Amino acid sequence: MIQKIVSIAFLSPLVFASLYGQDPQVQPQSQPADTSAIVDAAYLDKNTSDRKFIPYPSVRDADVLYKQRLWRAIDLREKANFHLYYPLEPQSDVISLFDLLKREIASGKMVAYKADLGPNKTDDKFTEKITAKELDRLFLLTEGDIETDENGRELLDPTTGKPIRDDKPMGAEHLVQYKIKEDWFFDKHRSRMDFRIIGLAPMRPLYDPTDKKKVIGYAEMYWVYFPAIRETLARNNALNVRNGGQKRTYDDIFHKRIFTSYVVKTDLDNPFNRNIGDYRKGLDALLESEKIKKHLFNYEHDLWEY
């Protein structure tokens, strides 16, 4: 009996090694006739196109003891947020967040909502959709002058009949900031502070009229309803500069809070609906942001006795 057990224990690794060796991914092969059959990796990466996002736990209104709405800015120039900024050019398995949103909106698979409803009137409540005709101007960095011929006459596009402008399109390298709108709440049923991201908005750079290279501020390009885009975010990988063997989707990044941000607005103690930048500047604005974060932390902390 002991001899049989020893024999099985000895043969088992050989059997598993034999089965694993039959995998075409790791077997030495001759030169493939078709270049598409070449695997440019040590192994085949798991396809994320069929990934599913992790659904949020259900929350009852009666279980919410505390709620606070925050608007946060994510600065992509910070090293901790590089995975949302790069790559500047789409790759076969990785695409920047800006290019992902642009691709999905242009294809009609994602709905973009207007952030600017007129002079001094902004909107982040997803009230008005951006139409297909407005998409052409949505992703322009700056509008150029109308091109003319040597006689000063406007040059017209032969297909559309519209004047040809020397416009500068916006690329991933130009967008260095996002804004998110989220709710933080304490769920007494699960005894924890939780959050839900409601909206996501890329921030367009605003340039000085007298100096086209000088950025004087940022404004929302458009808003997307975050719960509706989670499936798309879960199916696209973000860049991971620290570990190429660990795939992270954009939904993982937002769900697990793998980014740094600072608060730019809150709905508590804010009857005038002001941004922090309206009454605090520079370092004072950052200190006000940290004060709001600390208040949120202390509320949960003070609920417990040690």
Task: Annotate the secondary structure layout.
Elements: H1 2-21, E1 64-75, H2 82-85, H3 97-106, E2 113-114, E3 116-118, E4 121-122, H4 135-138, E5 140-142, E6 168-169, E7 177-187, E8 192-208, E9 211-220, E10 222-225, H5 226-234, E11 237-238, E12 248-249, H6 250-255, E13 262-266, H7 276-279, H8 283-301
Antiparallel strand pairs: 1-7, 1-13, 2-10, 3-4, 5-6, 7-8, 8-9, 8-10, 11-12
**Percent helix among the residues?**
10-25%
Q: What's the story with the biggest beta sheet?
A: 7 strands, antiparallel
Q: Which consecutive residue ranges, at least 5 long each, have pLDDT under 50?
A: 14-24
- Number of strand elements: 13
Number of helices: 8
Structural class: alpha+beta
Elements, N to C (H/E): HEHHEEEHEEEEEEHEEHEHH
Tell me the Rg in angstroms: 26 Å
Global outline:
globular
- Mean pLDDT across the residues is 84
Alpha-carbon distance between the termini?
A: 58 Å
Strand content: 15-25%
Task: Write up this protein.
This protein has helices at residues 2-21, 82-85, 97-106, 135-138, 226-234, 250-255, 276-279, 283-301, and strands at 64-75, 113-114, 116-118, 121-122, 140-142, 168-169, 177-187, 192-208, 211-220, 222-225, 237-238, 248-249, 262-266. It has 306 residues and is α+β, with helices and mostly antiparallel strands. It has a domain at 60-260. The radius of gyration is 26 Å and the shape is globular. It starts with a helix and ends in a 5-residue tail after the last helix. The relative contact order is 0.16.
Summarize the structure.
The chain has helices spanning 2-21, 82-85, 97-106, 135-138, 226-234, 250-255, 276-279, 283-301; strands at residues 64-75, 113-114, 116-118, 121-122, 140-142, 168-169, 177-187, 192-208, 211-220, 222-225, 237-238, 248-249, 262-266. By secondary structure, it is of the alpha+beta class. β7 and β8 form a beta hairpin.
